[in-house]
Amino acid sequence: MILAISVVMMLFGAGMSSSSSFSSLENQIVQYIDLHQNEFIETLKEWVAVESDSIQPRLRQEITRMMELTADRLRALGATPELVKLGSQELPDGQSLLLPPLILAELGKDPQKPTVCFYGHVDVQTARKEDGWKTDPYTLTETDGNLYGRGTTDNKGPVLAWINAVEAFRALKLDMPVNLKFIIEGMEEAGSFGLEELIKEEKQRFFSDVDYIVISDNLWLSNRKPALTYGTRGNACFFVEVQCGESDLHSGTFGGIINEPMTDLIALLDSLVDTSGRILIPGIYDDVASITEEEKKLYESIEFDLEEHKNNSGVKKYLYDTKEGILMHLWRYPSLSVHGIEGAFHEQGIKTVIPARVIGKFSIRQVPHMNVSIVEHQVIQYLEDVFSKRNSPNKLKVSMPIGAMPWVADVNNPLYMAAKKAIKTVFGEDPDMIRDGSTIPIARMFQNITRKSVMMLPIGAADAGEHSQNEKISRHSYIQGTKLFAAFFLEIAKLHRPLQEASNMTTTN
Fold this sequence. Notes:
Strand order of the largest sheet: 1-4-8-5-9-19
Structural class: alpha+beta
Strand content: 15-25%
Radius of gyration: 25 Å
Number of strands: 20
Number of helices: 15
Shape: globular
Mean pLDDT: 92
Low-confidence stretches: 1-22
Oligomer: single chain
């Protein structure tokens, strides 16, 4: 493997991609994409119009329709999509609902070419006009160069950009430089039911000849500068429940003579983090990975406009004043956020009730090398200690319904080297090398189960508003993203050949 990497580094340093034939090829592809961009946008409009909301059980048929549309699009490229049944989902009310199928598709089986597997999803978060959208969320609307609509960035736009890139090669009758595989699901926003089991089942079949896995389901750090993502934080979600009885009580009759569950709960939640954002749970920072000099250097060249970031969020002041301080606390240090209280009166007006049972909800974003089981134990022990000091007769229950691990990749992997080269070709500048403060479990899942190289290659800008009102992707990001994926096919093919030859030499020796 050391020999293989050395060969790649020599070829990269020698400027292998400067060949005039490749430049001419890239020009053909770029011209085709530019000429057909309105058609690509029209297809995105058709996809956005499908209300494939995986959160709402009543819309399950719309997700299935979206999966069939996607399969048709892949089939038109010459791929062989397989709609895989995933079984049923048990709903909270006891009903059972069929899960939408998942797509496994492949295009090309040339053993001399690398095989790149793309993961994406075509389901979306819930969106309603009355929630604050300026336009109908399911009608793609172009304003000032931005394409507004639910799913434009998360994740229908990037999925289509991959498909559009393949279409450019096919329409120009150009030989695809890579074999392609697609794994596309319709339940990502609801928790990817059945996905992990399917990946395990397909490890020896569908994934057996895959060399690289690429995910395009996140955003740049900047509104204008492209980025490559090499890590994400994990997420441990907690419920802390306090109960005093079986039914709510009137504050005029019982206020002042009982230990109220809400008072206990607020005290517990307040004990978790201090005003500087530091988590107060003992031992929580013990296993956080130490920062290396190589990692420090990655922060130096990152383009990060603090004021722009504040404007995107609507927040006036952050806890940290420097680029490095903010990014490190978003990416490589854990954070704790309180999300809500179930069982409390939350509607307009006043209701003088003492809730009998309340559940606080918070999460801890973990980083390498934190262990989710250790974090769970630390949280439970700490909250039980805090609660015991209150001498409350109420019942306490702490649970962790979700525990997703963090993920980090090697930025010197050939997959990242090829993507950097493709970004430089299309955008004219090197990308920011970033982590993502959120949790994208699929990256670690793929890496752990398949043992393949995994990369996150976003095309959406920081202000895209995924999961929010007025989600958008700019025309620029969508079309340039299509060119980026086409350029990436060429670059990974060029890098893979010497790797393969070096591997063969090592095996022979």
